[in-house]
């Protein structure tokens, strides 16, 4: 490989950045709000640790074991077979995901610029109306979508060490610090206790079969597993890093950020009499309301929006990287040209999602807007499908001696730990994914 991570912490922060973004900060709060609160959070934690963590270890093992990006990794590890479809599946999924992910990134970018000029927080402001005005204006939505992609492309074009890792080392620690500040302020609001109860006290009577599928999908979405993104990232990693410990670090950081997101959002939601089922716009309406109550609220809001933007960018980097690495591994094109071409194609593909709240609001796919349909396809079909194929590859095809070797590098874990991971991947992960999916489509009931 021509480019590598410079350090273990750089790899972990970059991997955490790929995982921690819209999944943990934007999507998790509204998915929790729409699916019963505490019960959803508990299921999400369980799926993350029991299913997501072993899957993350799996992607790390495949990537470093092959020392190749997504498609080439499966070609190398399973020559002459069709397993490379997992890599292509991941590229397609990352492409679709980034096409609507960057739309949300554009919204945050626009909010950030507006807040810099003091145009978000005001007396008696209607934040729901503001969000509708931004997402409902075709020119604003598309411009934000384009600008977000341009900035992401610029960073990724610098490469792994000088681009993605360098940016992640600055962005991720700052995000944690500011999130903690927001939580401290949020839980001091009058009425915050009701929000904490909703978020932390499970009520399984509110959980549906669809909600269980969403919790499983959220654990995949939030850890960035299923699309071979982490296969590509770990292919740049040396043998002196423990993959299980790195995966555990990323998973714990992800759960912690999801916890912080819930603690920051739900106390404010209940304090201000808002509905926790607001949907994707929850964060954009709740945050300004919270910061409006603080001294220097606009300043704090601006800083948090910028940090939130950093988290979104670090996830976008990974999606651009898997596409870039796949092309440059096969063609003698310059990295810069491939990144810019990828960004342009994603921009064009994302225009319908950007128009889902305006010109294409009435255009439905199975009753959903283009944005919502893309989200459902990625989170509830493609991600679980990718994870299922990954589990089958580990259980059926990959060489066990290589797996055990990669699992054991740079740690003191026993062979029992390896066997536990392998049996979870071989049996529990595929069975769980299939059962939850069959239940969600009504084929079986539980």
Overall pLDDT score: 87
> Could you estimate the helical fraction of the residues in percent?
over 70%
CATH topology: Amino acid/polyamine transporter I
* Distance linking N and C termini: 48 Å
Report the β-strand fraction as a percent range: under 5%
What does this structure look like?
By secondary structure, the chain is mainly α. The protein has one domain: Amino acid/polyamine transporter I. Helix content is 75%, strand content 0%. The protein is built from 18 helices and no strands. It is found in: Membrane. It is a multi-pass membrane protein. Its main location: membrane. Belongs to the sodium:neurotransmitter symporter (SNF) (TC 2.A.22) family.
Topology (SSEs and partners):
Blueprint: H1 8-19, H2 22-34, H3 38-66, H4 70-77, H5 85-116, H6 127-135, H7 138-157, H8 160-186, H9 192-200, H10 209-223, H11 229-234, H12 243-271, H13 282-291, H14 297-328, H15 335-354, H16 370-396, H17 400-408, H18 415-440
Helix pairs in contact: 1-8, 1-12, 1-14, 2-10, 2-12, 3-4, 3-9, 3-10, 3-12, 3-17, 3-18, 4-5, 5-7, 5-14, 5-15, 5-16, 6-13, 7-8, 7-14, 7-15, 8-12, 8-14, 9-12, 10-16, 10-18, 13-14, 14-15, 16-18
Protein name: Transporter
Organism: Lentibacillus amyloliquefaciens
Membrane topology: Multi-pass membrane protein
């Amino acid at each position: 490989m021509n480019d590598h991570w410079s350090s273990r912490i750089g790899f972990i922060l970059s991997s955490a950045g790929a995982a921690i973004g819209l999944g943990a900060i934007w999507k998790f709060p509204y998915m929790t709000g729409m699916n019963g609160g505490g019960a959803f959070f508990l299921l999400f934690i369980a799926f993350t640790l029991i299913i997501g963590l072993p899957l993350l270890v799996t992607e790390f093992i495949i990537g470093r074991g092959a020392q190749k990006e997504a498609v080439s990794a499966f070609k190398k590890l399973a020559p002459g077979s069709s397993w490379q479809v997992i890599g292509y599946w991941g590229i397609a999924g990352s492409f679709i995901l980034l096409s609507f992910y960057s739309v949300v990134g554009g919204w945050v970018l626009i909010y950030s610029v507006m807040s810099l000029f003091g145009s978000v927080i005001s007396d008696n402001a209607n934040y729901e109306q503001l969000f509708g005005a931004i997402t409902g204006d075709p020119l604003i939505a598309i411009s934000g979508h384009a600008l977000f992609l341009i900035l992401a492309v610029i960073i990724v074009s610098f490469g792994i060490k000088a681009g993605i890792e360098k940016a992640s080392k600055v962005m991720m620690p700052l995000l944690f610090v500011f999130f903690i500040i927001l939580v401290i302020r949020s839980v001091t609001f009058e009425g915050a206790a009701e929000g904490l109860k909703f978020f932390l006290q499970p009520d399984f009577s509110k959980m549906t079969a669809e909600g269980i599928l969403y919790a499983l999908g959220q654990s995949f979405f939030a850890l960035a597993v299923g699309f071979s993104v982490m296969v590509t990232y770990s292919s740049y990693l040396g043998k002196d890093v423990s993959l299980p410990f790195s995966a555990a670090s990323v998973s714990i950081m992800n759960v912690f950020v999801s916890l912080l997101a819930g603690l920051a959002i739900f106390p404010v939601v209940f304090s201000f009499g808002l509905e926790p089922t607001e949907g994707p716009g929850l964060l954009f309406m709740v945050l300004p309301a919270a910061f409006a109550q603080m001294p220097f609220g606009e300043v704090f809001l601006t800083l948090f929006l910028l940090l939130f933007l950093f988290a979104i960018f670090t996830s976008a980097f990974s999606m651009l990287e898997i596409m870039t690495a796949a092309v440059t591994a096969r063609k003698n094109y310059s990295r810069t040209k491939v990144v810019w071409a990828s960004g342009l194609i994603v921009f064009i593909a994302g225009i319908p999602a950007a128009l889902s709240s305006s010109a294409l609001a009435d255009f439905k796919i199975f009753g959903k807007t283009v944005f919502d349909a893309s989200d459902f396809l990625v989170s509830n079909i493609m991600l679980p499908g990718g994870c299922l194929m990954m589990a089958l590859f580990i259980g059926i095809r990959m060489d066990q001696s290589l797996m055990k070797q990669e699992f054991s590098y740079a740690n003191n874990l026993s062979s029992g730990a390896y066997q536990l991971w392998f049996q979870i991947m071989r049996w529990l992960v595929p069975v769980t994914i299939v059962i939850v999916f069959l239940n969600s489509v009504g084929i079986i009931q539980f």
